[in-house]
Amino acid sequence: MNLIERRLSKLTLTAFKDREGKVSVDKLQAMYNPDGIQLDYQTHYQPDESINRASQSSRYASSQPAGLSLILLFDATMPDNNISVEEQLEKLKALCSIDASTNEPYFLKIEWGKMRWENKGYFACRISDLTINYTLFDRDATPLRASAALSLVADESFVIQATEKQLKSPPVTAVRVADITSLPLIALGAGAALVNGINYLSLAWQNDLDNLEDFTPGQILQAKGDA
């Protein structure tokens, strides 16, 4: 029994005019039942210039949005399939096309059964590549079966991105320097307000102190705990 003959789960692709997903355009359901799902994450580095060429190091440059590849199946020979392959493919191409009002591709959301997609219930993205492969025709050359390979790039709501960044950011507290104190004591007091505490060396580094006594009474120091 091949992939086409199996009972396939339906994947839903919904297009929106806006990144926040408030203005929907249309949606499409297609057969999808992969052997596996691959999400690609890429981090780029740049080589550090070094006087000593014998040693090498790399410096972080950027992180790329997650990439997702899908192969959707369209089969007019399946039972209860009353929509032609060509009609379904035209709809898919329309959802992956350029929005005339913004001159940019539509924003897409991918949903598939109980797949959590990093605990969101969907994968927010935009199309980067679409390839259609026709595999079966009727006697009059009417397409009966085709597959569509989509390459997608994550493009999440700005609101959700900001919320996730805030949740991942370490907590910050402000500490006023007393008249007679030391940096270790200041760090001890600041650590009481932070889940993982903070040591005095980290406190000095976070506030750009040149030495362990580079502060004055009444000064406000910012203490950022570990994430």
UniProtKB/TrEMBL annotation:
Residues 8-157 form the Contractile injection system tube protein N-terminal domain. It comes from the Bacteria. InterPro entries: CIS_tube_prot_N. Pfam families: CIS_tube. This is Contractile injection system tube protein N-terminal domain-containing protein.
